[in-house]
Amino acid sequence: MDAPAACIVCRNDLFDDEWDRYCCRPCQNHIDADLAALAGPPLWQDTKHGRRLVSGLFTALTGELEPGTSAGGPRVSGSKTAPIPARMEPLSQSAHGGLVNDLEEWVRDWEHRGYATSCQAVRPQYRMDQAVATLRFNLDIAVRKHEAINSFAEELTMIRGTCEALIIGAVPPRPLSAICPCGTRIKFHFDSPIRHCRGCGSDYGHHALIALAVATQAA
């Protein structure tokens, strides 16, 4: 690879012993922490900003399906009236085609590049746990070989942020979506400075991303 002068995730200069990487070690640690937060059983940790789930975010989504509940909130049972429908957004995101599918797209991408192996599972929770385990195991290779590791880091932040927002009952920010001419879907936020298409390697700056999203919607 042509060594970048700076980390493509945080844009800070790389140290002399990091020139075989696309992203710096602190960004790699942040990516690993975001992955770890999605899998396993819920685990809370006290921080200076209050209590925060440091693992089990995907599992916690299934506990937020009832209207008017948030993390740790009480649920009323024994009512003789008809049950209120489940909150549809957490249900949608925790289902087979939700957030776990977004993460599995990266597993397939890494597998195509030769440094990951897809796992077969049926239940969404098992799929999430296996996808996270696969991506964490191969992360050290990816930060050295994957020129779109910044896009992976940003999409992973969106997935974690979506889970956290739904758990506390907030409305998560809606990612934008565009289809590259090569056919690869690119998800991004409105303030994303640049995204790298993992399909063909094209770079899209902020204005190019917006234009591509508009063209995708029109199509």
Throw out a few tags for this protein.
single chain, 219 residues, alpha+beta, 2 domains, two-stranded antiparallel sheet, 11% strand, globular
Describe, in plain words, how this protein is organized in 3D.
The chain is of the alpha+beta class. The chain folds into 2 domains: 1-70 and 87-173, no CATH class; 174-219, no CATH class. 42% of the residues lie in helices and 11% in strands. It has helices at 25-38, 57-61, 88-93, 99-113, 124-137, 139-145, 149-167, 206-218, and strands at 43-47, 50-55, 176-179, 185-188, 194-196, 203-205. The strands form 3 sheets. Strands 1-2 form a two-stranded antiparallel sheet. Strands 3-4 form a two-stranded antiparallel ribbon. A hairpin with a 2-residue loop joins strand 1 (43-47) and strand 2 (50-55). Helix 1 (25-38) packs across helix 7 (149-167). The longest helix has 19 residues, at 149-167. The protein is globular. The two termini are 36 Å apart. Mean pLDDT is 80; it is low at 64-88.
